[in-house]
Amino acid sequence: MRRLPLLIVASIVLLLLCTRPVPAQERMRMAWAGTSPSNTAIWVADQKGFFKKNGLAAEIIAISASTITIQALLTGEVDCIIAPSATLVTSRLAGADVIMVSTNLPWFIDHIVSVADITSIEQLKGKIGGVNRLGTTSDMTLRLALRRFGIDPDKDTKIIATGENPQRLAALSRNVTQFTLLSEPLVREAEKMGFRDLLDIGTLKIPYHVNAVVAREKTVRERRPFMLKVVRAFTEALHFIKTNKEETKALIGRNLKISDAEGLERAYRAFSAAFPEVPYPNVEGVKTLLDDMAPRTPKAAAADPKSFVDMSLVQEIEASGFIKQLYKK
User: Fold this and answer.
1) SS3 label, residue 39
2) Which H helix or E strand runs over 208?
3) Which domains does the chain have, with CATH numbers?
4) Which residues are paired to 58 by β-bridges?
């Protein structure tokens, strides 16, 4: 039998190595809601390739409100969602087997923006405020902030649903509302239109999970390696945000369709400082909401905040040294 020349053999071996099938990536469907830089981590994880890097073939689904994302999770349409404490807590109190496994944004960064002639929080009494939908993050944020200043949102004000950030600004400009909740960079846009940045809620640092990874307990229990991939991808995305300012600003602008340089700078500065390095779900963030609900909801008064979070995934990732290596500590 004739021997093949060594060069031909080497070429065949190299060809076989180059054409070996790439290990299949695990399919993931995730839903999120809200046109705000609070969702920067999911944009980065998806658009900068961190889901793919961690072995996930991700389908990311934008939904208009967090109250709808939970329905998609409970019906099995998605594997996990990005949701706030309010979505998690109200669903779990109703009997759903949902749990928070990590957090991307542990406190409010929004601003209360008002018409120009309102100069103090107290002057919001008797006025109409705008939120996305009743029961969503914006609604809960506004109500919690007002209560911090002794204003009963149900008795002293009227809060109505006017849509996401751009729609809320439009409602304010038409005087449908006299105050609303906005995040940067739209706060900057509102100021250019003559409205007043009445309160930066971020300065209050109210513990509350604005943006967290929520899954069904069954999924965490039966598909733990999958959920570790999800949390690891977000951990890398948070590191990217904190260490790649200009690329992150460009990504925020692209996703929000905003090019104002000062607005994007302000958005990056506010949100990057709030995004954590180690994304533990903080029990205090759940307790904030339970305490607020307790006078009106007996189940909330009796609930244990620790039962709403699973710390073990982030603990495992941190114990592996993965996060220290990211930040080279």
Assistant:
1) helix
2) strand 207-216
3) 26-107+207-327 (3.40.190.10), 111-204 (3.40.190.10)
4) 28
